[in-house]
Amino acid sequence: MSSVLPSGLSGRRLGADARKGQLLEIGLDLIRSTPFDQISADLVAGVAGVSKGLVFHYFPTKRDLQVAILRAAAAELLIRLDTDPALPPDQRLRMGLNAFVDFIEQQPANYRAVSRSAGSDPQLLAVFEDSRTAVVGIVAAALGLPVMPPGLRLAIRGWIAMVEETILHWLDDRPISRDQLVDFLQAAALRMLPEALALS
């Protein structure tokens, strides 16, 4: 966990947006080293040098705080996945896959814990659904499709779930090289693309 507060903001009188952003930035730092369920208003307040009540002012419950941090993390991931639009689709796909591996590799326990519990928590599920919908949109843009055909949308959603599970299992003991992992995931996407586009 970083011991340096974002932009040296602690102790200053901040506007609402700046303070909320500071608290989320601290949360993003914490999530890389702290179990997701242990992130609390007390913990964030201690790092920020503010009162717990101030954290609750912006995030009324512990779960609200955790979900906001998760949404901020998902937004960071989407920025990494949305690679240079000037590149050919296959190169954009590979760069996006490497970014996804990097992201999960930085916090595998938290990613696994959150993904496993999302189905039983409507707030977490909403974050995952929004993120996957955004990834489908990124893929559609990379393919130059203004509207995603239903069959392709279905296939990509399934492929995203496979990518997540494959990376998580790979991290357990890394039975193959990282390049082999990315090669496999990329090839799986490219193989399914023609058949998925043909679905009506």
Low-confidence stretches: 1-11
From the alpha-carbon coordinates, what is the Rg to the nearest angstrom?
19 Å
Number of strands: 0
Count of distinct structural domains? 2
| N-to-C SSE string, H for helix and E for strand | HHHHHHHHH
CATH architecture descriptor name of the largest domain: Orthogonal Bundle
Strand content: under 5%
Return the average pLDDT rounded to an integer: 87
The level 1 CATH classification of the largest domain is Mainly Alpha
Gap from first CA to last CA: 49 Å
Oligomer: single chain
Please summarize what this structure is.
By secondary structure, the chain is mainly α.
Mind explaining what this structure looks like?
The protein contains nine helices and no strands. It is mainly alpha-helical and 200 residues long. Helix 2 (41-48) packs across helix 3. Mean pLDDT is 87; it is low at 1-11.
Layout of helices and strands, plus pairs?
Elements (H helix, E strand, L loop, with lengths): L15 H16 L9 H8 L3 H7 L3 H20 L7 H18 L1 H10 L4 H21 L7 H24 L4 H21 L2
Helix pairs in contact: 1-2, 1-4, 2-3, 4-7, 5-9, 7-8, 8-9
Which descriptors apply to this entry?
200 residues, mainly alpha, Arc Repressor Mutant, subunit A, Tetracycline Repressor, domain 2, 2 domains, 72% helix, 0% strand, elongated
